[in-house]
Specification:
This protein has helices spanning 13-24, 36-48, 63-77, 100-128, 149-169, 187-190, 195-201, 210-221; strands at residues 4-8, 28-33, 53-57, 82-85, 131-136, 174-181, 232-235. By secondary structure, it is of the alpha/beta class.
């Protein structure tokens, strides 16, 4: 039986790229996203290609909704082998202009949503004695850029959360890691005012494609990975060393 992956943020960007990579590897997919129309559209497109995909519109800030998403996945496919937490929001705002609501929103999606999905998926993985979790962080979690203090703080939290969870669940056969991309060439990023200057500053001068990051996610998710746990894989075009 083919493996099963839950991918959050699957309606677009890196989440969609990860879903495409898993589909190419023969996975059955649970597609989680707050964008109901977007995730259902992606689900229909996968179905039309003969790929087993279950779209699950979900606000991951709600733990009960995350629990329901995992339960729906198990009801449809029988198990959860892999969880990829790619959902995230990337607000940019000068630090003195960040409101309490801004902080709560970005932490709710990027940190609490990641945590809720993990703690709801882990019992199912523990039951089977095996699982892989990959969280999406960012180089902003350890390299400062202006006008994104709240986003950067969440991504540092994701790295720390990944390491802490990895210590607790590795003895259960569940390996937790994170990836930290630099400026990815998503459609939203390419339309922003910051993407061009950040790309120009990369020593490689090459855009970081979501599919390339998805390849790293797939490697960490593979059952052949038996030793990488609690690590943060940086994919930055050497952007962290300049």
């Amino acid at each position: 039986m083919s493996r099963v992956a839950i991918v959050t943020g699957a309606a677009n960007g890196l989440g969609l790229a990860c879903a495409e990579r898993f589909a190419a590897d023969g996975y059955r997919l649970a597609l989680v996203d707050a964008d109901r129309d977007g995730v259902e559209r992606v689900g229909r497109a996968f179905d039309a290609r003969g790929i087993h995909a279950l779209p699950i519109p979900t606000d991951i800030r709600d733990r009960a909704a995350c629990s329901a998403a995992v339960a729906s996945t198990v009801a449809r496919f029988g198990c959860v082998d892999v969880l990829v937490n790619a959902a995230g929001v990337y607000p940019r705002r000068p630090v003195l202009d960040i409101s309490a609501d801004d902080w709560q929103h970005v932490f709710g999606v990027n940190v609490l949503g990641t945590y809720f999905m993990m703690v709801e998926a882990i019992p199912e993985m523990r039951r089977r004695g095996e699982g892989r979790i990959v969280n999406v962080s960012s180089i902003d979690g350890f390299k400062a850029h202006p006008a994104n203090a709240h986003y950067a703080a969440t991504k540092a939290a994701v790295i720390s959360l990944t390491r802490s969870l990895a210590l607790e669940v590795a003895p259960l056969g569940i390996l937790v890691n994170s990836v930290a991309p630099g400026p990815m060439a998503t459609e939203a990023a390419k339309q922003s005012d910051w993407y061009g200057p950040m790309l120009a500053a990369l020593p490689t001068r090459q855009p970081i494609e979501p599919a390339e990051v998805a390849n790293a996610v797939a490697f960490l998710s593979d059952p052949a990975n038996v030793s990488i746990a609690g690590e943060n894989v940086v994919i930055s075009g050497a952007g962290t060393i300049v």
